[in-house]
Amino acid sequence: MIILENVSKSYSTGAPAINGASLHIKKGEFVFVVGNSGSGKSTLIKLLLKELNPTEGKITVNGTELSRIKRRKVPKFRRQMGVVFQDFRLLRDRNVYENVAFAQRVIQTPTRVIRKSVPAILSLVGLAEKYKAKPKQLSGGEQQRVAIARALVNNPSILLADEPTGNLDPKNSWEIMKLLEEVNKRGTTVLVVTHNREIVNAMQKRVITMKKGIIISDEEKGGYIYEN
Amino acid sequence: MRISTLLYTLKQGLKNVIRNKVFSLASMATIAACIFLFGLFYCVVANFRYMVKEAEAGVSVTVFFDEGISDEQIEEIGNLIKKRVEVDKVNYISADEAWNEFKEEYLGEYADGFENDNPLKDSASYEIYLKDVSMQSALVTYLESVDGIRQVNKSEFTADALSSLNSLVGYISGGVILILLAVALFLISNTVALGISVRKEEIGIMKLIGATDFIVRSPFIIEGMVIGLIGSAIPLLGIYLGYDKLINYIVEKFNILSTILKFLSVDIVFETLLPVGLIMGIGIGFVGSFWTVRRHLKV
After folding, report:
1. Of the candidates A58, A194, B16, B35, which lies 20 to 30 Å from A111 by C-alpha distance?
2. Quick one: average pLDDT of A189-193?
3. Which of A108, A143, A160 would you mutate first to test chain B, the one with the most B CBs within 10 A?
């Protein structure tokens, strides 16, 4: 599903953000990527979304080598993936329904499909009742649920979550992780970048640890081993 | 493209206009000024051309012949004149016709005193109509060199001056409109750039979700075109409503020139001005926003 072969990414200044990374994530896996700030986690997400191109190496997602995707085909490629961020990135002037529907509108999904799929995905994340609420009327956990609903509404095969619990209290963090686990059980490959030691240790999933752009450990049922 | 996508794009474009209302209004005002001036200059130029054309139709050069010239010689001169490229039409007016016309026009019943005398017996003439009034002086120079021609009367009407003035108005209006176009493009570009910066987060989300370049960019293009449309429609409406009043005012004020001042009707002016004005306005909006989106919005 996701294959990195000796991937490096350097910016014009400083040390490489990712240095010779190789990994293989199978379909339906749940994977944590952990590491300190500057370890290359976010760069990894950007490379997978083809926001950045690697300086060296090869990235393959769902059988497609990313370097071969033409610029105009990038949007279509990105529709295979859902993305969730630490700061939710919701549209503040639109309600919950519109925020989720937005993801379908911009890929030209027919309105009759949107009318069915948005309520269904809001039920999945437990926000069916709050479809009219604006983001500022929701708690952090609820806002992240909306973001997850938006990421999932187009049925992506991969869900990338960049610090999804970074702005949440422990209770909400656990609820979000349980939701992601549920999504994973339904068949979506989930890759979570996180700092949350407690969750990583408790969930006993595959853990990839990065340090200064290098993958220093990759364990099937690992824990948070990273130390400053 | 789906209708729902089209509606979505249009809605977002209109929302952009409302969100950046101050800049949108400034851009509309500039386009409005640009199109208003264009409309005014167009009205002036179109009416000028109409007046020149009308005046040209009545302009003629008249040639009179030496005393005692034979009819054959007159005919020969007529043939020479007809061959000239400047000439559109030549009318021969015999001495009798000239006298009858003079009697009718100026003497009326007093003409009876002349009985069968024709005081204008040497006043046979050719009335020459030109293809283009600007060629008048060249033809007059030629006619004055022809043997058998005693006198060449040319029109008092200063066609050359009118033509020159017409061109001058055209050049000045073109220059002013170009400057205003540049200002309008600059303002629209700023408005759209501001819209892009305000919606940076939304654009970022759209890109990550997999929106195509078209979907991301088109609301901004629509925004520019809407600004252009409104900015051009307002002055055109103003000109349409004010045209007749202005013409009436000019006719009243310059009554002495009523034989020269002939104006086109507003409907005839707007047959050209309306589509050209709207296309210009929408075009400025499209070009300004398209250029800005290409510069500032790398999808």
Report:
1. B16
2. 95
3. A108
| pLDDT of A227 | 57
CB-based contact B209 A77, cutoff 8 Å: no
Helix (H), strand (E) at residue B127: strand B125-130
Asked if the model's pLDDT at residue B74 lies above 60, the reply is yes
In this structure, the answer to whether residues B257 and B211 fall within a common structural domain is yes
pLDDT classification of A55: cutoffs 50, 70, 90:
very high
Cβ contact B126:B78 at 8 Å: yes
Of B4, B209, B212, Cβ closest to residue A111: B4
pLDDT at B211 over 90: no
pLDDT of residue A115: 94
pLDDT at B279 over 60: yes
Encoding tokens for residue B120?
A: 């204008």
Q: What are chain A's domains?
A: 1-80+156-228 (3.40.50.300), 91-152 (no CATH)
Domain carrying residue B29: 3-55+160-296
- In Å, what is the CA distance from A176 to each residue of A42, A64, A103, B94? 20, 30, 20, 109
DSSP annotation of B260 reads T
Pick from B123, B140, B156: which residue ends a domain? B156
What is the strand order of the sheet B125-130 is part of? B87-93, B125-130, B60-65, B149-153
ipTM (interface predicted TM)? 0.78
